Structures are given as structure tokens and as C-alpha cells.
Amino acid sequence: MNLARLALNFKGLKYKTQWVEYPDIAPLLGSLNVTPNANPRAPPYTLPAARFPNGETLQDSLIIAAKLEELFPAPSMRFDDPIIPNIQKAVMRAFLPLFAIVSPSNNRILNESSYTYFLVKDAKDVAEYGPDPEGETAWEAATEPLENLAKLVQGPFVLGSEVSYADFVIGGFLRHTWRVAGAEVLERVLRMDESGKLRGVYEGLEEKGLLERSD
Ligand SMILES: N[C@@H](CCC(=O)N[C@@H](CS)C(=O)NCC(=O)O)C(=O)O
């Protein structure tokens, strides 16, 4: 689940989703004069992108969330908390190995043109942790990073009792795992963290209804 959607849900804003197939992302965002991603290692155009009522279109979850925080300051996502970059790094470390387990299920949810694009582009990441029919190498590689991520969570949410953007970074990846690979794979990920902190974040976001919308 993308983090811009979580931010929109958290702010209680009305929005409409336009789904875009992978090969159509660059032509569409280019035609809308979106500023290309600053990171030279990222594709120039990525989703999520958001078009605001004044016609401005922004891409990148963090940039979209920052704009939403500026336009709608309450409730705050505690966006400037210094833990956010640490959570982002810890999530990437934990989910990169899990990519090999989750991404083969992409054919369950992607339409054909997107799946073909995805196979060509991302096959190298899957190859890094495979081939491993049971995915055990990937599970082992994810164990310690998942535990380290959980240590950053005060409980029930990252910063304690209040939800913040840091929870969206964790919750977005967990929801993605659920959506693409299914409930059993998500359950195994959550069980790997014996502290139960990651489950706490996920279930806390679920209880608040923030994960519900997927249209
Ligand atoms: N930092 C970006 C990353 C987004 C990203 O990588 N999006 C993928 C889809 S999940 C994408 O649009 N890829 C386009 C491509 O690979 O051409 C964000 O969080 O907004």
C-alpha cells in the first residue's frame, strides 16, 4: 500500500484513484509536467503521484505527504521526527530480502502489461536472493533486519500512542506483503518479530481503518 494513500486516509481527505499500468507511468507523468525524481538511481517517473485541486502534480510518497502536511496540518503526521529516515532504512533492509518471496506473487495482482514490464525490470532483484524454491534463504536474510526494525517501535506505534508517518512506512510495506503474497506470508513475517511490535503497528493502523481503502 503506498504511503501517499495512507497519508490521505489519515488526513480524512476525499480523493479519486486513477490506476496506471507500469509502461504508461512515464508517458503520463511526463505529459503532466511532473518534475522527474531527483535520485539518479530511481526511474525518472514513479507512482504514487498525486494531482492536487490547483492542477499541480507531484510524485514520490514523501514529497506528496509533505505537501499534504503543509496543506492540512491537523492531524499531524509528525513528519519532521528524526526517526523517519531510520525507519525508512530499516524497512528497506528488512524488505529487500523479502522481495524474493513477495514479488513472484505479483502475477496475482498485476495486469499483463505491468507484469511483463515488472519481470524485465526487477528480475535481477529476485535473482539476488534466489533461486530458492522454499524462499528460506530470503527468510533467513530478513530475520535480523526485521528484529532491528521492531526495536525502533515504542509501541503500539513507532512514536508511542500517536500514529505518525513512521508507522505508514512500516504499515505500507506490510500491507503490500498481504496484498501481493497473501495473509499467510504476512502472518509469517509478523511472527518472525517475537516482540510483537510490528504486529502492533499493523493492527493499530488496521483498527483505525487506515488500511481499508484500496480503490
Ligand atoms: N520513492 C518512491 C518509489 C516509488 C516506486 O518505486 N514506485 C514504483 C511502483 S511500486 C514505480 O512507479 N516504478 C516505475 C518504474 O519502475 O518504471 C516513492 O515511495 O514514491
* CATH hierarchy: architecture of the largest domain: Up-down Bundle
Distance between the termini: 11 Å
Q: State the share of residues found in helices, binned by percent.
A: 55-70%
Bound molecules: glutathione
Task: Assess the beta-strand content as a share of residues.
Answer: under 5%
Order of helices and strands: HHEEHHHHHHHH
Structure summary, number of beta strands: 2
Write the CATH fold name of the largest domain.
Glutathione S-transferase Yfyf (Class Pi), Chain A, domain 2
Number of helical elements:
10
> Structural class of the secondary elements?
mainly alpha
Task: From the alpha carbons, calculate the radius of gyration and give it in angstroms.
Answer: 17 Å
What is the CATH C-level name of the largest domain? Mainly Alpha
Which strands sit side by side, in order, in the main sheet?
A: 1-2
The overall pLDDT, averaged over residues, is 92
Pfam family, one: GST_C_7
Domain Glutathione S-transferase UstS-like C-terminal: 91-193
Domain GST N-terminal: 4-70
